[in-house]
Design brief:
It is a single chain. Helix content is about 40%, strand content about 20%. α7 packs across α8 and α8 crosses α9. It is of the alpha/beta class.
């Protein structure tokens, strides 16, 4: 991995390459994948996408749990640069700096093909955490959201109103200290699939474990161990290029990993994926669109997550699908991707779906 400076020269514009990194619209660094021809993040920005389509729904959906002593378990699938985890931890530190007394320790599982702790540390050291306007804007919004949730859940929300650090920069300092200076990394057979990178914060309240290799193996492993996660960040490349990661079988496996009141969140709005989620038993919502897109990301809730459903829709963080969207899922558009084994190529999976779509269209035509 090339070394990248975290300071952005004045002549760099939106999405200008810094070595093999990119400066996105919110001034946070991202990358693109030449193999798939896709960026790691929406053009609106790396931080912005992670906050709006991943972290914000999870913070709001899990709000009462944040103030209980039982651990919160998060799965970050297809970890990449780690933004979903880092922004989640940043948001929790920001809440603490605003006086909210969070009690839940965190157990974070992550999975992807490559483990790159040096890149994660670089992402955390960007000057954007200190200087980008999106940090102050998000901190201000987070305070308003938290005060609203405090009114909704007064019996469980604990806050010391004498503590009020106005800027998210305080939170950034805390998280940089926690994740860079007072952590230890433990790499086990780092070049082999299934190896792990882990850290525990100095106070023991955040435990992180990254599994290197095919994330689907990690899902199976956690399922076999009886792990139940409260939220899943699902951030693979788009189903057009890696449909094998978005099949009905994968969505059913992830459902089995979720706590009965858990959430699954993603940037993806593809009907095939939403159809798979609905077929797997989830209630499917849509988060806010970003970067000029007409459709937002997807929030999928377990059947018992009625409290999260009410909170997310009331705060307008996510909305119920429209009648037209449900009709699309009921038709050929909602046919999920299916694979018979992990070795099938994307082309085979895409062609199988086309055949299934034609069959469903033919049936509907003759009804």
């Amino acid at each position: 991995m090339k070394q990248v400076t975290s300071a952005c020269p004045a002549n760099l514009t939106n999405e200008t390459c810094v070595n093999d990194f990119i400066v996105t619209q919110d001034l946070f660094l991202s990358k693109s994948c030449p193999v798939y021809g896709q960026g790691f993040h929406n053009s609106a920005g790396a931080f912005t996408e992670s906050w709006l389509q991943f972290v914000q729904p999870v913070i709001a959906g899990l709000w009462p749990r944040l103030f209980k002593p039982a651990p919160i378990v998060i799965l970050d699938a297809y970890f990449g640069l780690g933004y979903n985890t880092w922004v989640f931890l940043w948001a929790l530190e920001a809440l603490k700096s605003l006086g909210f007394t969070l009690k839940a320790p965190l157990l974070l599982y992550a999975a992807d093909l490559n483990a790159t702790p040096e890149v994660w540390r670089m992402i955390l050291s960007q000057t954007a955490w200190h200087k980008a306007s999106v940090i102050d804007q998000t901190t201000a919004y987070l305070l308003r959201m938290a005060e609203d949730l405090e009114k909704q859940f007064p019996e469980c929300t604990h806050r010391d109103s004498t503590i009020l650090n106005s800027a998210g920069r305080f939170s950034l300092n805390a998280i940089s200290h926690t994740l860079e200076h007072n952590t230890y990394y433990q790499t086990l057979e780092a070049e082999k699939p299934g190896s792990s990178v882990s850290f525990v914060t100095e106070d023991g309240r955040v435990r992180f474990e990254f599994f290197k290799g095919d994330a689907r193996e990690t899902f199976k492993r956690l399922n076999c161990e009886g792990i139940k996660v409260h939220a899943q960040f699902f951030d693979a490349f788009s189903p057009k290029v890696v449909p094998m990661l978005w099949t009905f079988g994968q969505m059913a496996c992830l459902r089995d990993l979720l706590h009965p009141e858990g959430l699954w969140v993603s940037y993806c709005s593809a009907n095939a994926v939403r159809g798979a989620l609905r077929q797997a038993g989830f209630t499917v919502l849509e988060s806010k669109p970003l970067g000029g897109k007409q459709r937002g990301g997807t929030v999928a809730l377990m059947p018992a997550a009625q409290g999260a459903l009410d909170t997310l829709t009331r705060l307008d963080i996510a909305s119920q699908l429209t009648q037209a969207q449900h009709e699309q899922l009921n038709g050929p558009g909602g046919v999920p991707y299916e694979s018979q084994n992990w070795m099938e190529s994307p082309e085979v999976i895409l062609e199988r779906r086309k055949v299934a779509q034609k069959a469903q269209a033919s049936i509907k035509k003759h009804i």
